[in-house]
Automatic annotation (TrEMBL):
Described purpose of this protein according to its UniProt entry: Has RNA-dependent ATPase activity. Represses the transcriptional activity of nuclear receptors.
Compartment(s) where it occurs, according to its Swiss-Prot or TrEMBL record: Nucleus, Nucleolus
Protein name: ATP-dependent RNA helicase DDX54
Domain Helicase C-terminal: from-to ranges: 326-472
Gene (name only): DDX54
Lineage, highest ranks first: Eukaryota, Metazoa, Chordata, Craniata, Vertebrata
Residue ranges of the motif Q motif: 96-124
GO biological process terms on file: RNA processing
Length: 879
């Protein structure tokens, strides 16, 4: 009986009624969430309302409907039943399980097999809308189950394997690893649908991909670059695609993939359904205009709480050159020995160097980066996921989408330059209800990025208290320093390892150079964060609570001493050192100090006030848990700004005097806001949306403005031939390059009329077909291709996928020539013949006749008794 259903009218046993009442009582006590969960039957069978069954007259009162019709049944019946279930569930608004979504049985079975009992919030929100056929742009935080959101409706739409030509669904992923993972999910969740999937990834053999597409898959999962390559080679029109998914859509739409996406979208038919998913999507849908969305529904969850509650974050302030030592300490002493950790680094050179360095220190690890061979990438990832090594060192290639079960920690060796990259990186842990920790090593020059991140998250950054033991408030979200003793201990071991290995030293040098390049190329932090970072007194920061075991008195004393030395300001200038009071330089300095004593006093006063303001500051992105202690050596050193004095003495550019007190007060008053009438010129979510923006540079307004520019040149450029297109002088390359700043490479025109790099067309497909002896007619029969063929450099088109309407190739004999390529039947016949040949060559005939002879003997014995004399005549003949 369906959970909680009153037994239908008719004779009821008292026991059944008592059971029903008991259930009803129980249900009343439960909350709304658990009611939703109840609606999913535990055993995976669909159940239907008793009243409905009774009305239908097919089932006994309250009896469950055993299963949905399987895919063999006619789709009419299936859709009727689904409608029935939907209607029923709509009546019962409480139900919010997978069952209420009206999936067909094969899809539902896949969900149950995967072990999903209750849909996640984003699944509950998006699946019904996608099932209704609407275009959807959806955002929810990492690990919230977005993959199932687009796969389940896709299975439901495609239903079952179709003989219809061409793929009907296309899933685009930004990285190969993510595409592989989506393939895995597709196989698991769509296990009972029988749909065929082809994986088109860069780095894999193109020949295998041609073969996969020749098998007429229902779904194509691809990375954009390789899909365009295959599509151009094969002349794939993708006209049968009804459902397109842009997974990690913001990444796909960020620069880099623009050309490929335009080409793919240009090949899609009108009226297809498009869904976009990511953990970081802006609310400005105009940024996805290129995706060809039609009246899209925007669903954004977790806009405010972007980080998972189960995720703990720690920010460690370390010098760049001490990062390796701190990383080693974290892996050895902070994370548990059984933990699995992913380390994000800036470049592949860092990945190589750190892998070797850690291996030399007996920390087992593997690495992945985009330039690594695809097979090595797969092997290294498998090594890590199977627990063969405890750390995986990766570049941002692995930041998105990777779902590594049982992953515990993420370490940001290099701090991400963008807030949303941080979200994706740390989103590898604390997935699907699990907990996890993210440690971030922050070099002093990365502090502005840290402040940018907190602006983006809308969270406050907590600073560790200086020279004090932590109050036990926890380590979450705290920025603190690493004890010098930790750095020294680990650094000692690392130095001796480096001294012993020439290879490691050269890898280290390469990594250092790469770091310089990376720092030059990373996007700049926002100006306000740079300003705040300058105001932030990082030298006065306390030890991170993570190292509480190191908070011995000795360590704190040492820290105080080091800080004292760091902030020491000499009372006298360099001209007065070792100079007697009669020396000219000393006299000049004293006279100067005397003359400027007012200015010096006011400067000191201003500085003090600034420090006090900073302490009291509890803004959205910066908060001190307690007033900071006064820095030793700072209070009475006079703090004379030597630079200022010297500029004044030498009569150079005059520093602006500190503002007059009255002017200051007036300015402060002007800054006070009347909350009743104050209208901010920026929306509240400005920083957050700026971080999510796909366009990259500038805020949302800047982008809107940029988008509103009427680009007459752009239109004109389209009418120009390639030779006429405007070129501009590249000073670095010392030659003319195309409008986009790209070198004017050789281009070919595609079916969709766009120009793409000629490297996409190398006639690999034709060669493969010749090798496989595939007739073009077969390609057409198999229906993978459009009737129009692939573009040829010489304007030639073959038969088969190329279509018969094309002009013959120059030099080809006129009229229809009998193709030398074999038909499907001929290939099958040839295969059978080859099989037979192999059989004969193996001596199969001899074996067969021997077996026959033995059988005859056995039969003879069975029929006539052992050693019976052979009979002549009819009986023997029959035998
Ligand atoms: N309804 C569900 N019940 C239980 N587990 C689920 C459910 N949906 C998804 N999961 C599991 O949650 C994990 C994360 O899912 P998925 O990879 O789809 O997340 P995501 O939102 O796509 O993450 P990312 O943004 O990082 O790509 C997976 O292990 C998946 O099997």
């Amino acid at each position: 009986m369906a959970a909680g259903k009153r037994p239908a009218a008719g004779p009821r046993s008292p026991a059944a009624m008592a059971q029903w009442r008991k259930k009803k009582g129980l249900r009343k006590r439960r909350g709304a969430a658990s009611q939703a969960r109840d609606s999913d039957s535990e055993d995976g069978d669909f159940e239907i309302q008793a009243e409905d069954d009774a009305r239908a007259g097919k089932l006994g009162p309250g009896r469950p409907l055993p299963t949905f019709p399987t895919s063999e049944c006619t789709s009419d019946v299936e859709s009727d039943t689904r409608e029935m279930v939907r209607a029923q569930n709509k009546k019962k608004k409480k139900s919010g399980g997978f069952q209420s979504m009206g999936f067909s049985y094969p899809v539902f079975r896949g969900i149950m097999k995967k072990g999903y009992k209750v849909p996640t919030p984003i699944q509950r929100k998006t699946i019904p809308v996608i099932l209704d056929g609407k275009d959807v742009v959806a955002m929810a935080r990492t690990g919230s189950g977005k993959t199932a959101c687009f796969l389940l409706p896709m299975f439901e739409r495609l239903k079952t394997r179709s003989a219809q030509s061409g793929a009907r669904a296309l899933v685009l992923s930004p990285t190969r690893e993510l595409a592989l993972q989506t393939m895995k999910f597709t196989k698991e969740l769509g296990k009972f649908t029988g749909l065929k999937t082809a994986l088109i990834l860069g780095g894999d053999k193109m020949e295998d991909q041609f073969a996969a597409l020749h098998e007429n898959p229902d779904i194509i999962i691809a990375t954009p670059g390789r899909l365009v390559h295959v599509a151009v080679e094969m002349g794939l029109k993708l006209q049968s695609v009804e459902y397109v998914v842009f997974d990690e859509a913001d990444r796909l739409f960020e620069m880099g993939f623009a050309e490929q996406l335009q080409e793919i979208i240009g090949r899609l038919p009108g009226g297809h359904q498009t869904v976009l998913f990511s953990a970081t999507l802006p609310k400005l849908l105009v940024e996805f205009a290129r995706a060809g969305l039609t009246e899209p529904v925007l669903i954004r969850l977790d806009v405010d709480a972007k980080l998972n509650e189960q995720l703990k974050t720690s920010f460690l302030l370390v010098r760049e050159d001490a990062k390796a030592a701190v990383l080693l300490h974290l892996l050895r002493s902070v994370v548990r020995p059984q933990d699995q950790t992913v380390v994000f680094v800036a470049t592949k050179h860092h990945a190589e160097y750190l892998t070797e360095l850690l291996a030399a220190q007996q920390v087992s690890c593997a690495h992945i980066y985009s330039a690594l061979d695809q097979t090595a990438r797969k092997i290294n990832l498998a090594k890590f996921t199977h627990g063969k090594c405890s750390a995986l060192i990766v570049t941002d290639l692995a930041a998105r989408g990777l779902d590594i079960p049982l992953l515990d920690n993420v370490i940001n060796y290099s701090f991400p330059a963008k807030g949303k990259l941080f979200l994706h990186r740390v989103g590898r842990v604390a997935r699907a209800g699990r907990s996890g920790t993210a440690y971030s090593l922050v070099a002093p020059d990365e502090v502005p990025y840290l402040l940018d991140l907190h602006l983006f998250l809308g969270r406050s950054l907590t600073l560790a208290r200086p020279h004090e033991e932590p109050s036990g408030a926890g380590t979450d979200g705290v920025l603190g320093r690493v004890p010098q003793s930790v750095v020294d201990d680990e650094d000692c071991g690392l130095r001796s390892t480096l001294e012993a290995s020439l290879e490691l030293r050269s890898l280290g040098r390469v990594a250092d150079n790469a770091q310089q390049q990376y720092m030059r190329s990373r996007p700049a932090p926002s100006p306000e964060s740079i300003k705040r970072a300058k105001e932030l007194d990082v030298a006065g920061l306390g030890l991170h609570p993570l190292f509480s075991s190191r908070f011995e008195e000795g360590e704190l004393r040492r820290l105080r001493l080091v800080d004292g030395i760091r902030s020491y300001r000499a009372r006298s200038t360099i001209f007065e050192i070792n100079a007697s009071s009669r020396d000219l330089s000393s006299q000049v300095m004293r006279a100067k100090r005397q003359k400027d004593r007012k200015a010096i006093a006011s400067f000191q006063q201003g500085r003090k006030e600034q420090q006090e303001r900073q302490k009291a500051l509890a803004g959205p992105s910066l908060r001190c848990p307690a007033p900071q202690e006064e820095q030793p050596g700072k209070e009475e050193d006079g703090g004379e700004n030597v630079e200022l004095v010297f500029t004044e003495v030498s009569g150079q550019k005059r520093q602006r005097p500190p503002p007059h007190r009255g002017a200051k007060r007036r300015r402060e008053e002007a800054q006070q806001r009347d909350q009743e009438f104050y209208v901010p010129y920026r929306p509240k979510d400005f920083d957050s949306e700026r971080g999510l923006s796909v366009g990259g540079v500038g805020g949302a307004f800047e982008q809107q403005v940029a988008g509103a520019v009427l680009d007459l040149m752009g239109d004109e450029a389209q009418n120009l031939t390639r030779g006429q297109q405007q070129l501009k002088w590249d000073r670095k390359k010392k030659r003319f390059v195309g409008q986009s700043g790209q070198e004017d490479k050789k281009k070919i025109k595609t079916e969709s009329g766009r120009y793409i790099s000629s490297s996409y067309k190398r006639d690999l497909y034709q060669k493969w077909k010749q090798k496989q002896k595939i007739d073009d007619r077969d390609s057409e029969e198999e229906g993978t291709f459009d009737r129009r063929g692939p573009p040829r450099r010489g304007g030639k088109r073959g038969r088969g996928p190329a279509g018969a309407s094309q002009p013959p190739a120059p030099g080809a004999p006129a009229g229809r020539v009998r193709s030398e390529l074999k038909t499907k039947q001929q290939i099958l016949k040839q295969r059978r013949r080859a099989q037979k040949m192999r059989f004969l060559q193996r001596g199969g005939l001899k074996q067969l006749s021997g077996r026959n002879r033995r059988r005859v003997r056995e039969l003879q014995q069975g029929a006539f008794g052992r050693g019976a004399p052979s009979r002549k005549g009819k009986m023997r003949k029959r035998m």
